[in-house]
Amino acid sequence: xxxxxxxxxxxxxxxxxxxxxxxxxxxxxxxxxxxxxxxxxxxxxxxxxxxxxxxxxxxxxxxxxxxxxxxxxxxxxxxxxxxxxxxxxxxxxxxxxxxxxxxxxxxxxxxxxxxxxxxxxxxxxxxxxxxxxxxxxxxxxxxxxxxxxxxxxxxxxxxxxxxxxxxxxxxxxxxxxxxxxxxxxxxxxxxxxxxxxxxxxxxxxxxxxxxxxxxxxxxxxxxxxxxxxxxxxxxxxxxxxxxxxxxxxxxxxxxxxxxxxxxxxxxxxxxxxxxxxxxxxxxxxxxxxxxxxxxxxxxxxxxxxxxxxxxxxxxxxxxxxxxxxxxxxxxxxxxxxxxxxxxxxxxxxxxxxxxxxxxxxxxxxxxxxxxxxxxxxxxxxxxxxxxxxxxxxxxxxxxxxxxxxxxxxxxxxxxxxxxxxxxxxxxxxxxxxxxxxxxxxxxxxxxxxxxxxxxxxxxxxxxxxxxxxxxxxxxxxxxxxxxxxxxxxxxxxxxxxxxxxxxxxxxxxxxxx
Length: 513
Ligand code: GLN
Known about the structure:
By secondary structure, the protein is an alpha/beta fold.
């Protein structure tokens, strides 16, 4: 198998036995990017020289018999929202187009310490708001399985880079499904760890009570490897949880005995594509053939997950994004042009003698904020800021935000009850396979409904994972979602590995012309 087709775990074995080098792997990945990324556009920036230099340095160290980190020379692509010292971190937004953070996110620091080769930054929906990558300020990413379709989002570039064999490992973030859903649409694996499992320090915040960084890869073993590196408590993130990180890679090959899988009755209703349903049901039969029992259960509050998520996430976003005012960092409007405009308006109003309008003219500071934010944010981000500001305003706080928090608690209780009966919940990742570019851009509600099966895991803070389980008749990947109680990532990984021992969906790759 060629270098670019190999999994990270296979490559690591080859690196350790001296059959290949980090430079060879990086060069193969860069070549694949050169060949295909002009069409797919998974990457916003590729650090060719930096990656090759780093790979050479790791090779030299290994050759000299010195210690090499856990990822010892494997290329990793990073979603463009993890702060990386001195390197542009745009979050897919004009607002941060030229932002160079003065520090590394904890996950970046851990990747560096593990000797990953940071090869480039992947495209995403602006501030991770979206499910198709169509909200990026820097252009579309195309699904490698069908270039006319979206790759999913918001970690669309991360999933596409893996599906197109440009990298063996990728890091994304998941606030309402943004790792699991693009992984599903692109035929790769993605995990949203438990809230608190991975440090969010240096992750550009979208909705802080929901955001979680997660690994993407082409096999369960690879997800285990990457999670082992990035997980763990962190004094710099008070919401991270300081409990030991299991050796996921060591336990992964142990099959789960007497596994009890639950199917949520409400997941198989209106809106679910027949082929997706068939693939998911077939996947549960695979588990049955491996000794698992499958039962149905009800999660009565799941139907409110989208509504609840689309109150809480925008509320938190409106607060988190208040910092982009042009005064601290990020985009700032052209103040010379602004002053000229303001002077002209003032003069015109003085001539008409309209003193009321004259008084109402913005003061220069307010005008600077207004222009900066109007120019820096895209339409979807503005929509979320407005929804969030509205829902948090004095007259509506109780009716929307507080109510949403109560429903959030009920959703968590549904899970607690479900996990008394079953070990894992299985179901679809998204209601349909990847849709056409442009199909839903003018219909925010249709976009939001895509998060039907994924958002509840974020609201409840539990762990979830997406694994390839089929192809549609149109040749598009279908994902199976597995969900587990908090801090049971190991269970998810072992279950995913079992499935991959019995099936080969995760090995299917799109044909790239
Ligand atoms: N699609 C969801 C949204 O638009 C999820 C995004 C995410 O997980 N970052 O908010």
